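For concreteness, we quote verbatim a single protein encoded this way:
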Amino acid sequence: MNDPQPEGHMASYIGRRKFLATLGSAAAARPLASRAQQGNVPRIGSIHTTRSENAEAFFQGLREAGYVDGQNVMLETRYSEGTLDPVDEFARELVALKCSVIFASNPYAIRAAMKATNVIPIVGVDLEDDPVANGWAQNLARPGRKVTGLFLDLPELGGKQIELLREAVPMISRLAVLWDATIGSVQFHATEMSPRPAGITLQSLPIRRVEDINEAFDHAVREQAHGMVVLSSPLIFYQRSQIADLARNTRLPTISLFTVFPKVGGLMAYGPHFPSMFTRAAQYVARILAGAKPEELPIERPSKFELVINLKTAKALGLDVPPTLLARADEVIE
């Protein structure tokens, strides 16, 4: 993506580079015997959008599989913090470090890792892409390439989200759809084409960078949208608090794919349980370190989905969520 990033992101990026340099200095100060011992263990590279419960679930999954950083494995972790600028560099760094496997937590990281290497196995988590249609895998059961992991690709999910939002707010008819045009066209068109309740019309609100989000909400208000469906992307995940705040301020009932969305003030979420996906990805990494070939590890779909409702936000919006819907929720935030 060629769009310029905000100065704050660049400052964050520079700060991260200084932090990594500090870590490098600290590593140089380790006892020589310890460093020599660590040189004999495999390296796991990973690229994350941000520090979150999902990233922690990945690390916890590695620990549960018996891999402890600094003992029998070295973790090389990179965080993009919502900007795309460093992702390609991160991938090149991990390849130069001769990592045994690379975990890529989003489609941008997967693309960067694939561009950087065709030798090192890549385990990915991707909500936006069809790996077979993209040519990343020959088929789901036996990928036949160096990329495997967990991919969403559930076109009916958008329709399900619309149904749930309509159930919470029966009077809605005009729904805005917030989506990332740099990566989410397949997901948006699947939502657009999915079966939905009669009388619901959709308004497309594509964004490409952080600065577009405020304008998208302004447009939704001008067009008198009754609610909003928030699709997924690394950018949208990173800006989830801003989106939740704008939704409350503009009094737009909103549903998201990200189950953490209601936890930062959004109204509802219906989507896969992300920590379990990241834990499963860690198990894939462990299997590859134990000798499994990524070409033979089936690409999986998420198996656990959750409905989360923020009742406090509902009350702030003047909504009475039906008891039948609350009873089906996996989590109700009060």
About this structure: The two ends are 39 Å apart (CA to CA).
